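Posting for a labmate who doesn't have an account.
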Amino acid sequence: MGDFNLALVIVAIVVSVLVLLVSVYLLVNYQHPDDANQAYFPKLVVVLGITVAVLSILMLPADVANRQACRKAVYNGACSLTLPMKTLWLVVYIVDAVLVFLVIPFAMFYYEGDQDKSVGKRLKTALIWVVASAVVCGLILGILYVVIGKVDFTVRHLSSSVQAFPNQFSGFSTNQPCIAPLTRQCSANTAPANSQTTWTMRATFPEYVVALTTIVGSVLFTIFGGVGIACLPLSLIFSFVRRPKAVITRSQYIKEATELGKKAKELKKAAEALHQEERSGSKGRKWRKNVKAVEKELLLLENDMNALEEMYPQGEKAEATWAFTVLAYIGKLVFGVVGLIISIAWVAHIVIYLLIDPPLSSFLNEIFIKLDDVWGLLGTAAFAFFCFYLLIAVIAGEMMLGLKLVFITIHPMKWGGTLMNSFLFNVGLILLCSISVIQFCATAFAYYAQATAAQEIFGHTLQSLRGIKYLYKYNVFQYGFVALAILTLFYYAIFGWRKRKPTGRFQLSN
């Protein structure tokens, strides 16, 4: 057992270091050239945020592996666990909440502050906004914790007569499972209805903070994740369907490039007008709406430019470029089909294991267990992959809804072209939803992740909190997730195969 404990500790340390290195790699390769050699504080927050988010996802497989230290114990308290997982869970999620509600907003306010102002004034403005938000959040948390911060556990009081312990067990069978003179009559079977009662206790404040943060994250996860679980694979498949079939002529290229040039000039005028309004101090609701509209039009314009470059490759290696373009679309099709299989597996698992009572099958739980039997970490790796897939679906859903809905600000992630405010926004979204992803996975894979510290926090305490438990009792988030996934599927079936029509002349909203 000592070898197992040592191996688990070594794996935990190595994985943590690798996650940190991957976070730095993503920052370096995704950052915009304008942010090179500056904005160091937002970059530090981004690296820390990605590291915490990824480690929080990996902690659930680690929690499952941690329980292997007690696999030979009669009960969990009869052995010493390798890692103090419950303490680690609370620490990670308190850090998660601090980053989401305090540190990331401060970094965004500072980064997006008026560049004409001094550093001191930008820090002061950002600090005022964050302190005000912290006071409001603290008051809300404190009031809710005092008023309804209790856990109601449903328990059954059982009692029985004293029976002599048997010297042999040959008398036990299917018809006689208990130490009692009556056939099939155990105390749990004969207990009266009034033996069931409610045991009330106050939740710890850290657990309550995690619970409320999970609720906020669950709302976003249900919306973005439900849409993303369908649009992530379907967008890749329909991207292949709408791919350019052949290289266009030079005259067609010039015509399209001219139209895009006109659109670019219109957007430049609009951006200058908005900048002038910002300088004059008239940053009202209309201004913010116009800013979002310009950002979306700029993103669509950039996508059109990239599509045009794909259809008319230039230079000495034009043929090779076109060949790589064709291979890229084939790759999208392959990944889209694989993603579609994973999405279908997720939705099917939610329906047959969570929404149908009693469950028809444990489905993916059994698959993970069988994979573990093949190789010790194979099931754990598959389990972690399914959890990560949900996080990627959240980002895909946010991107899709950001393009379709005006009131959602879009923050695209681009290789070598991502500004720090977009980085911070997406990291904050991932951190907020990571708690809900863990809770969702702990519920969906309860059979595979049984008796873990995550089950204790997310499976018992969270689902018994006053005012919150009914959301989980009636599977509100699961039903919403599946419903949005089905609606998105119908949307792509009706509109996904169509190519986007070029927009007309862009004008600011009056």
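Reply:
Got it, the structure tokens are right above this. Strands lie at 150-156, 196-202.
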